[in-house]
Amino acid sequence: MSTPRKQVILGAYLGGVNHHTAWWHPAAGSQIDFSSFEHTARTAERGKFDFFFLAEGLILRERAGQIFDQDIIGRPDTFTVLASIAAVTEHLGLAGTINATFNEPYELARQLASLDHLSDGRAAWNVVTSFDAFTGQNFRRGGFLDPADRYVRAEETLNAVRALWDSWEAEDLVADKDSGRFLARPDAGAFAFHGSQFDISGRFTVPRSPQGRPVILQAGVSPQGRDFAAANADAIFSPFGKLPEAADFYRDIKARAVAAGRAAEDIKILPSASFVLGDTEAEAIEKFHAIRNEQVTGQTALILLEQIWNRDLSGYDPEGPVPDIDPDPAAPPIIQGRAFVHQDRFATVERLRQVAEAKQLTLREVVIDQFERGPLVGTPTQVAEQIDSFVQNNGSDGFILGSHLVPWGIDEFVDKVVPLLQDRGALRTEYTGTTLRDNLGLPNVRSTVAADA
Amino acid sequence: MAPNPLHLGVALDGAGWHPAAWREPNSRPADLFSAGYWTDLVTTAQRGLLDFVSIEDSLAIPEERHARTDDAVDRVRARIDANLIAARIAPVTRHIGLIPTVTTTHTEPFHISKSIATLDYTSRGRAGWQVRVSGTPGEAAHFGRRELRAITATELAEAVASGTFPGEVHDLFDEAADAVEVVRRLWDSWEDGAEIHDVATRRFIDRDKLHYIDFEGRFFSVRGPSITPRPPQGQPVVAALAHGPLIYEFAARGADLVFVTPTREAGPGPIVEQVTAAAARVDRTGEPLRIYADIVVFLDTDETTGPQRLARLNEHAGDEFASDAGIFAGSADELAELLIEWSGRGVDGFRLRPGVAVDDLAAITDRLVPALQRHGVFRTSYPDGSLRALLGLPTTVPNRYATA
Ligand SMILES: Cc1cc2nc3c(=O)[nH]c(=O)nc-3n(C[C@H](O)[C@H](O)[C@H](O)COP(=O)(O)O)c2cc1C
Known about the structure:
The complex is a heterodimer of chains A (about 450) and B (about 400).
Chain A: E1 9-13, H1 34-46, E2 51-54, E3 62-63, E4 66-67, H2 78-88, E5 93-99, H3 105-118, E6 123-128, H4 133-136, H5 147-165, E7 173-176, E8 181-183, E9 190-194, E10 199-203, E11 215-219, H6 223-232, E12 235-238, H7 245-259, E13 268-277, H8 281-295, H9 298-309, E14 335-336, H10 345-359, H11 363-370, E15 376-378, H12 380-392, E16 398-402, H13 409-416, H14 418-423, H15 436-440, H16 448-452
Helix pairs in contact in A: 1-2, 2-3, 3-5, 5-6, 6-7, 9-11
Chain B: E1 7-12, H1 35-47, E2 52-55, H2 82-89, E3 97-103, H3 109-122, E4 128-132, H4 137-143, H5 153-162, H6 167-188, E5 195-198, E6 203-205, E7 215-216, E8 221-222, E9 237-241, H7 245-254, E10 257-260, H8 269-281, E11 290-299, H9 306-317, E12 326-330, H10 332-343, E13 349-354, H11 357-374, H12 387-390
Parallel strand pairs in B: 1-2, 1-13, 2-3, 3-4, 4-9, 9-10, 10-11, 11-12, 11-13
Antiparallel strand pairs in B: 5-6, 7-8
Helix pairs in contact in B: 1-11, 3-6, 6-7, 7-8, 10-11
Bound molecules: flavin mononucleotide.
Flavin mononucleotide binds near residues 219, 220, 222, 272 and 341 of chain A.
C-alpha cells in the first residue's frame, strides 16, 4: 500500500438571504432563529465534517442609497452563535468570520481564546479585511483603510492576537489548593506589542486555551491577501470551485507558503461549493437548473450585474442582451457594504459578453451561468466522485458546503454522499482527535515552546 | 404565593466573591475556564428557580481593588469572556435569565448590540446585559487608543462620599449612557415583523420596517440599522451596578435594573431614597428603575456554619474579607428573614453574591429557596416566558421607530 488517501476536509456553511439560497422555498426555515444554526451544525457533525463556518455582516447593504433587501438581510453575531453551537456539538470546529479592521486585538484574542476554552479546542478565526468607510459608519473607529493598509492592519492584528495568546504558557495555570499557588509566575499574561497600528501592553486575562492558538482561516484573493494567507493562515477559502482556475490557485498558494518558509501542507485550500443531488444525473441537472432559475430572477440578475458595471442598470431587459455600455469604476459604489471587490470590471464584462455570445444567453441566463461557485451536481455517487477526485488531483484540500435550503438542505448530503466518501476512504468515519487542529491534521501548539521549536 | 413575589438572582464571579474561594475543598479552580464548570453552576441556580445569573467580567485581570499588588500568585488572576459563557450555557438551560457583563468603554456598541441580541435568540428570550465602565489606565493600555488617568483610592473614597466625581469619570459615564442608547436604538432598528417573507414579490423584508438610528454623540456616531433582527424580548434586560448618585443617574437614564450595595447596618432605605431622587433628576419616565440589593453570602452547610466558613476563608487569604456590598454569614433561615424584611423597604429584589460559588450556590438552591417558599414569598415552579416576564417587566416593549 502507498500513502493513505488524502482526506477531504469539509466545512458546513449556512448562507443567509442571497442568490445562492432559496428562502422563499416552502421547505426553507428561519435565517435567524438559533434552531437553524443548531440543526446545520448537528447535521454536519453527524456527517463527520471538520467545521461549521459563519460569515459576518457589519452593515446592511444599500443600493443607490436605499437599504438593499436582497442580500444578507439579518445575521446573528458570529462569536455568540458559535459559543451556543459549542453546547450542542462535541467535535465540530467552530469557525467565525471576524473583520480585522473593526475589532481590536485585545477583544479578538479574548473572544477567540474564550471560545476555544468553552468548546474544548474547536475555535477558528476567518480573518477578513473587507469594508470601507461605508461600514465604518457603524463604528467609532470609522474611517477607511486603503486596500494596501487593510492587510497591514490585518497582519498586525493577527500578530498582536498571537502575542496575547502566547502571553500565557500552558504551565502558568497551577491552581494548586494546598500550596495556595494559582499562578506559576506573577506575570502570566503580561504582554507588550508595538507596531505601526497598535501600541498596546498589559495583562491578558485568558489562560492558554486548549489549541494554544485557535485555527486561522483567510478569505481573500488579491495578491496581498494571498501572501497574507500563505504566511499566516492554516486554511484559505477559495472562490474557485472549477478546474483549472482552482488548480492554479492551489499551486499558487502552496508555492507562496513554501516561499514564506512553511510546508505546502501547512495551509489547506477550501473552495466554497453548493450541491444538488438527484436519483439520476439528468434529474440532478434539471433540479439544479430549476433552482438557479428561481434564485436568479430578472431583478436579481440586474442587481448582480450592477455591481460589476457599477451603474444603475434598472432600464435593461433581463431577458435581453448583456448591456452594451462600459463599467464605471470611478463612480461611487452603486451597492455599498458588499465584501467582495471586483478586481477588474472590464475583464469581467468582456468575459460575460463572450459567454453570452457563445452560448446564446440572455442577460439573466448569463448571470445564472456565471455567478455560481462550482456546483456539485449529480447522483450521490457522482458527487462523491467529483469531490474526491477534485481533492486527490489537488484542485483543493476539501470544500465548504452550503445548501440552497436553510437549514435542512445539508441533511441530504450527509445521508447520501458522506457514506460514499467514507467508503472511498476519503472521509473519517469517527473523529479521532479532540480539537479542530486534530480534525484538520494541523500540529497542536498548546505550548509556545513546542510551537516555536 | 404573595402577589408581589420576591425576585432573586445570583452574581457569579470565578470561584466566588471571596478571594480564597478557589481553595475550598469543593471548588474547582482548574475548571474555571471550562464549559462544564459554568454549566454546573447555572443549572444549580436554575434548579433553585432563580430569576437570573449575572456573570462578572472586566477587561483586566481580576484583582482586589486598592488592596494588593497585582503580582500576587495566590489569587484567581484570569477570566474568560462573560458573554460567551452565557452563550455557551444558553442551549443547556431553559428558564433562567443570563446577564453577562460587557464593558462599554472600549467595546463598540454595534458589537454589543448584536451579541446581546444574538444571546436573546440562542437563549430564546432570556438575555440581559450588565453594563460596565472601565476607568483604569491598565484597561486603556490594552487598547492603546486613549489614556485614562488612574484615580487613587483616596480620590475615589472622597468622590463617593461627596458625590462629586472628577470630570473624566463623568465623561466615562456619559459615554456609557450613549452606548446604552445606541444599543437600545439598534435593538429597535428592525421592527417586529420586518421579515415578511413575501414570496409573490420576492421581498424577504419590508425595508420600511428597518430604520437608521443616526446616533450622533460626543463619543461616537452610529448609523444603523442593526445587522441582527430585533431580538425576541424586543429589548433585553439592561442592568448596572451602582454605588453613588452619579451612577444611580446613569442607571436611571438607561437601565431596567440597578444593583445597589446597602450596608447591613443602614439597610436599603437610604440608597432607595438616593436612587429615587436620581431617577427624578434625570426625568426618568415609563417603567420605574427596579432596585436589586447585592449581598455577599456565606451560608451554613452540613459541615460548617457560615461564620466558620468565612473565618477559614479569611485565614487562607491572610486578610479580613472586605466588600462594597453587605456581607451575610449565617443560616438560610436568617437570610430568608433578612430578605423578606428588606423587600418591605423599597427594594424590588436581591442579587446574592456567593462567597464560594459551588458551596453557596448549592446552599441558596437547597436551603434558602425552600425557606423562602415556606414563607410563601418565592415561586415553586418557573412560569413560561422571557426574562422580562420573570422579572415582572412589561413583555410588550414598544418600538420607538414603529410607525403603525
Ligand atoms: C469564500 C469567501 C467568503 C467571504 N466571506 C466574507 C464575510 O463573511 N465577511 C466579509 O467581510 N468578507 C468576506 N469575504 C471577503 C474577503 O474576506 C476579502 O476581504 C475580500 O475578498 C477582499 O479581499 P481581497 O482584496 O484580498 O480579495 C469573503 C471572501 C471569500 C472568498
